[in-house]
Give the backbone structure.
Amino acid sequence: MRPVARSAIATGLVLLVSQSGAAAEADQGAQLAATCASCHRLDGGGTGIPSIIGLGEERLTNALLAYRASESSNHIMHAIALSLSDEEIASVARYVAKQGSNPR
Amino acid sequence: MKSWTRREFSRLAGAALLTALNQPKARGQAKARVVVIGGGIGGATVARYLAASATAIEVTLVEPRQSYATCFFSNLYLAGLRPFESLSHGYEALAKQYGIIVVHESAAAIHPAAKTVALNNGSKLSYDRLVVAPGIAFRDRALEGYDEAAMEIMPHAWNAGQQTRLLRQQLESMEDGGLFVLVAPPNPFRCPPAPYERASLVASYFQRRKPKAKILILDAKDSFNAQDLFQDAWNRHYPGMIEWLPAQFTGGVTAIDAKTRSVITAGATFKAAVANVIPAQMAGRLAQQAGLANRSGWCPVDPVTFESALQPGVHLVGDAIIGGDMPKSAFCANSQAKACAFAIAADLTGSARFPAHLFNTCYTYLAPDDAFSNAISFKPVDGKLKSVISFVSKVEESSEVRRQAARAAEGWYDAFTHDVFG
């Protein structure tokens, strides 16, 4: 087998692996976001509970980290955030940030 | 080194793609079939999340009713603060947007060995996995004299629907100065704060419309959920209107006399103008008939997959299960249902598994503009669901914080029912 072909295949395999890694991460994000959806509408609609749609990954991550650090602003979000690892916070923030606003 | 050919490579890529598309493990079968019995909060949530997360699973939801009325927020309806229609949710979105096959029939029997469900119309459904979400039933002969006929005179209103409307009619037509007796059930029962929220909101209605009326709670227990928060609110909002008698004072309610609309305890008889009798509970009838409940009357399950400990291949979620530290609430049913749906999807399609996150969040009204909330997270520990973190509102909170919680509760209802029914 020629080296060029081998490297092309190797690249392909790396891509495959990283894609299935990304798919798993997206699945984890989706499963964690299912928890958010019990109180926050993921179509961007609703009132009374602040929307988490359209905030961006960094803001969502920082909000969850702040809720995890302190009970003072909201004990519900404190309890939720305390149950999440750093990796889970990153994963759910990335997933929710990708959800577009489409209120019904 | 093995030299890879293009064909082998595409075969590998194809296999990875198939996994990514969540194909069922079993070859030669187009789709894995999951049947969900019961279109309440637990059942509808399982169906929705299974259908949304795995296109390779065919989901059938069996529910005789055309729409579901929520028990949560029905106390607002009883207080005249919300129309009944706002509690009612149909199954159209689950069918149209998620492709769930909704069958409006009752399940007559389950045959776990044959993996079939018999419906009341004589037809049969086959399944690879079955989810049963039967809710609650009332224990037979829990209260002497409280039969079906008595329920039409002294409603339980513990399954939302005609019973809830009946209780509202009775409260509306009650004369000022009348006595409303609420019989509160023994543990465990559906929604621990709900009898006391009901007393609070009925008191707010009386205060507006029948200020001389009184409320008497005859409890089967000696203490109740969030008692400090309720008793603080009753003193602040409705001084002298609500009296709570624990079982140790009355000896407990022993019988009901529907003819005289009376509630009988060991030492006294209380004649009511309106009575709301909430009896002792157990898992829904189908769970009892199908051998899914143990001697406690409730259903033991695996706390990770929610598979029955008594019948392999059958999963249970919601009020019917032995939930360990998880209360019997709509929020818990919804949370368990998601964990159950992801576990079933992983089993049937080989999709990745992640640790489940189980929660209860609850908003409870003390008055129309005064609500408190709690939040608890749970984890499976040694085969049981244990609470890990728990926070609840405090008695000394400002009225502004409580007003905000009452507003948040409205938003929660909207988001939650969207999550369940689409």
Q: What stands out?
A: Residues 33 and 96 of chain A are 7 Å apart (CA to CA). Chain A touches chain B at residues 1, 6, 9, 12, 16, 19-20, 23-24, 27-28, 30-32, 34-35, 37-41, 43, 45-49, 71, 75-76, 78-80, 82-84 (CB under 8 Å). The two ends of chain A are 56 Å apart (CA to CA). The mean pLDDT of chain A is 82.
